[in-house]
Amino acid sequence: MTQSTSVSENKYAHEVKQAIDDNNESLRELSLKIHGNPELGYEEVFAHQVLTDYLEKAGFKVTRGAYDIKTAFIAEYESPATAAAVAAGQKVHAVGFCSEYDALPGIGHACGHNLIAIAGVGAALGVKAALEKNNLVGRVRLVGTPAEETTGGKIPLIEKGAFDGLDACLMSHPAPADIVYNTILSVGGVDVEYFGKASHASASPWEGVNALDAMVLAYQGLGLIRQQTAPTSRIHCIITDGGQAANIIPAHAAGKVSYRATNQDDHVKVRDNVLRVLNAAAEATGCTVKINEEMEYKSVPHNELMAARYASYTADLGVNYLPRAMQEAAPSGSTDMGNVAHYLPGIHPVYNIVSLEGHIDVSVSNHSIKFTEQAKTEVAHSATIRSAKGLALTGLDVLIEPGFAEAVKADFDKSVPKDVSHAQHKMARAVINAGGCGCH
Q1: Boundaries of CATH 3.40.630.10 in the chain?
Q2: What is the DSSP letter of 67?
Q3: Cβ neighbours of 156 (radius 10 Å)
Q4: Structure pTM?
Q5: Could you tell me the end-to-end alpha-carbon distance of the chain, in angstroms, rounded to an integer?
Q6: Cα–Cα dist 385/318, whole Å
Q7: Which of 184, 235, 403, 410 is at 20 to 30 A from 379, Cα to Cα?
């Protein structure tokens, strides 16, 4: 294992933190602009514009509409020493950060993505300052990732190569508590449609094939399989179409299903069970079924070395953490950062925007109006700046500390299960989208 040399013991730590502090007011202004103009996934035109303008002015090489995704971007910096090192055949490390900036329908930035946006920007600014002022060898890349709240903008970005060449990628997320070792669940999203045959519900019901019966049977079946589902997994379902009139046997019914798990093995089990129930409901009622697998976020594995560094740096900055067991037991949701952290080493800590002293207020929960209001406060901004410093210092370790990037990769190789290829994933999705049996 690498030595635990802390970057806070050398001269670069001050430069990293000072660079973020120097941009404190402009980062606050940027956050409030995004907060005041909430946009849904893949529609974040305003956020994309103000973020890329800011980064370009700060000296990054910016690619707007990156990888043919209108509201994605890439912002990169490398020092002159880096080009010389590459020419000499030397190994050059690269670290990435993520910014999110999409909002939720009706309640705006109730997940604080305006803060995630500037946490990524601030971290990139901090690392850039250390590289630039000292002509250190290394690259920093900020990936602007849209649509986290819907189908997951990071997933096509992974497939298109946005994270290739990075040794690690880091981001943090606002919450009502400070947690590094959070148990972030995987999540899959399924749209299901049942097709039957309409008929008069009174005069000739026997002529019909009731699509709503299939949807109701599926809903009930999903409820029944919960008793054989791991207590750490989740299944939720809503019916989005149950017919047009009570006196017509419904020819069409539809629903949405989500399922979650703490690890990839359990995720596959619960997904297969869900698909089995959905198909069985069609078979039992004589309907046909169309299943569309809309999104699939993986759980977030912890890279132990980077998580420990981030925890240490932020504790030095005043964060008070609960014992790890209590952190791991805290309730959590899901994020497409899990897909990134299965692709290369990553971390996704959450930080408290309610209290800088660590007081937990569960009434200010993510995806609530209270959280929307809290996400624009001075306390939330200060907490974000503190988190950005922790991300930047950890990222700089990956770039310049001898052996650290290699140790991070070794931990990743040991702890993250090897997944099927992207091509196999695409083939599996094609089978689901075609209707079929829905199993893969």
Answers
A1: 7-183+300-415
A2: G
A3: 18
A4: 0.86
A5: 39
A6: 12
A7: 184
